[in-house]
Design goal:
It is a single chain. The protein is built from 8 helices and no strands. By secondary structure, the protein is an all-alpha fold. Helix 1 (about 1-10) packs across helix 3 (about 25-35) and helix 2 packs across helix 3. It is globular.
Length: about 110
């Protein structure tokens, strides 16, 4: 559940703080939901779905929807995207991956 919330939040271009403000909790609470440290109540799930301009079913459904596939396809068509993804995949799991993501995000502004 948390991974789906995070993925949809990121695709919408929202920060944890943006989502927290929209649903009336702290960004730390959103972090806990996304990590799976706290369960998401049904009412909170509804508020999160509304804030993400989505449906509760989208957050509950484990399959990837057509809109998600289109967004992924669009991202992968960017020049260099596949090369970057391939290099990322070759990296060992751990902090270096997170640092790389943070670095690339910082370049985007």
């Amino acid at each position: 559940m948390g991974e789906r919330i995070r993925g949809l939040r990121r695709r919408r271009g929202l920060t944890q703080a943006d989502l927290a403000l929209a649903v009336g909790v702290t960004f730390q609470q959103i972090q806990k939901y996304e990590r799976g440290a706290n369960r998401v109540s049904a009412s909170m799930l509804g508020r999160i779905a509304k804030a993400l301009e989505s449906s509760v079913a989208d957050l509950l459904d484990e399959t990837v929807g057509v809109a998600d596939l289109r967004a992924i396809e669009e991202l992968l068509q960017e020049p260099g995207a596949l090369d970057l993804l391939a290099a990322y995949r070759r990296m060992p799991h751990g902090p270096s991956r997170a640092k790389l993501v943070a670095f690339v995000e910082s370049l985007g502004g």
